[in-house]
Amino acid sequence: MAKTKAIYRCTACGHQVAKWVGRCPDCGEWGSVEEGAPVVAAGAASVAPRSPARRITEVDAGTASATPIGIAEFDRVLGRGIVPGSVVLLAGEPGVGKSTLLLETVKHWAAGGRVALYVTGEESAGQVRLRAERTDAVHENVFLASETDLGTVLGHVDEVRPTLLIVDSVQTLVASGVDGVTGGVTQIRAVTTALVSLAKTSGVSVILVGHVTKDGNVAGPRSLEHLVDVVLSFEGDRHSSLRMVRGIKNRFGPSDEVGCFEQRSDGIHQVSDPSGIFVHEHPSDVPGSVALVAMDGRRAMVGQIQALLNNSEMTSPRRAVSGLDPARVAMMLAVTEKHLEVKTGKQEVYASTVGGMKVTEPAADLAIFLAIMSSAKNKPVPSTTVAIGEVGLAGEIRRVSSTARRVAEAKRLGFRHAIIPAGTEEELPKGIRITKVSQLDEALAAIGPRRLEAVDAPF
Q1: Where is this motif: RadA KNRFG motif (predicted)?
Q2: Proportion of the chain above pLDDT 70, given as a percent
Q3: Is position 98 annotated in a ligand binding site?
Q4: Is 204 annotated as a binding residue?
C-alpha cells in the first residue's frame, strides 16, 4: 500500500516543511504555516488520451491567430493582438492606470461588435461606470460585475458568453473549498489555474490584473507567471504622464516590445511617436545638450541628454544624475579627465535626461561625453546631430546593437548628422550624413571645425 504523509505549507510564500513551525523559514512570516492535504507517494499510472497526438504539419495554425484589440500600442506589445483562449497578466503599481487602460481596451473590443465582461473585485460596478463615463468608455457590449467569488465569476461567464474577460484583480478572487487567505499563494494559484482552464476550454481571452510588491515584482507565487501566456508590466512615473507597457513574457510574439501611453484627465491615450516627448526644442543651439537614440526593447526612441558643469568652492563638489546611470556618468568624467585633460574635480556636475526618459544602456556613453565636453568648453553641439556609441575606459568608441534602426529613427525625426562607432557593418539608411569614429578626439572633430576642441580657459 502506498504511504501517505502530511505536508505543511506556508500560505504566504508556498514554502513546504516536513513539520509544523511557528515561523516560515523561507519568508519569515509568523503563523502562516498550515497543514495541507496528504500526498500519496506512488507512481502515476498511464491514462488513455482523449485525443490522439497529431503531426505538427497537420495542426491548424489559424486557431492561434491574434485578434487586434483596436489600440495599436497595446496590440504591438501583445504581438498583433490577443489570441483567443490566451491568458494575459498585466501587473503594475497602484494608481499607474491599469484599470483605465483596461476600460479603454474593453471599449475598443466592444466597438468591434464583440462582447466583453469586466469583473472587478476592488470596486463596485457604479464606481467603474463613473470612471468609464469620465474616460468615454461606455458601450452597450461591455458587461460589469462586482464579484470576489470565483464560482460566481464563472457563472457570469456562462450567462454573458463574452469573448474577452477582464479580472481586476486576481488577488481579490476567492476559490471556495481551497485553503488559504485571500490573496495568498494557495488562493492565487487555484484562481489562476481555474481561469487558465476556462480560457483553454472555452476560447475566451482573459486579462488578469496583478499587484506588484515593493520591489516591483508580481505579487504571488512565481508559478503565476508560468501559468499565463503573456506577462506585461505597466510602468510610469508619478511625476510624468508617460506610461509604458513592457512585455516580459509572450508565447505569441516578441517579449521585448514596448507600448507608449499618456495619462490625461480624460483617460489614457496611446502615443505612437514618443520621441517628441524626450526632446526639447531650443531657439538656438545651447551648450551641454546632445541628442541620442536609445533602444527600449525593440523600439528606438530619440532622447536628449543635458550636462552642466559649474565651478565650486566646496571640498567635495556635488554630482547629481537624473535618468542616467550614475556609474556611467562617473566613468565618462574619468575618461574625459584622463584622455582630454579636462579637469572636473573642482566642479559641480549635473547630468539629466529630458522629459523623464530613463537611459541605462552603454550606447548613451558618447552622448554623455559630448554633453560634458560641450558644457566644459561652453560650445554647443548642433541640435541636428545625434550621437550613438559606447565609450571604453581606454578612450575607444565601441559598436552597439541596432545601429541601423537607431539611425533610421533619427532620420525620420529630421536629424541630419549621426555620429556612430567605426566598424559598424549594418546597412545604414540613406539621406543622413554618417560619421564613423573610433576615438574620442575623432568624435570631437566630427562635431564641427573648432567647436569643442578649442579650450577657452584652463581647468
Answers
A1: 249-253
A2: 92
A3: yes
A4: no
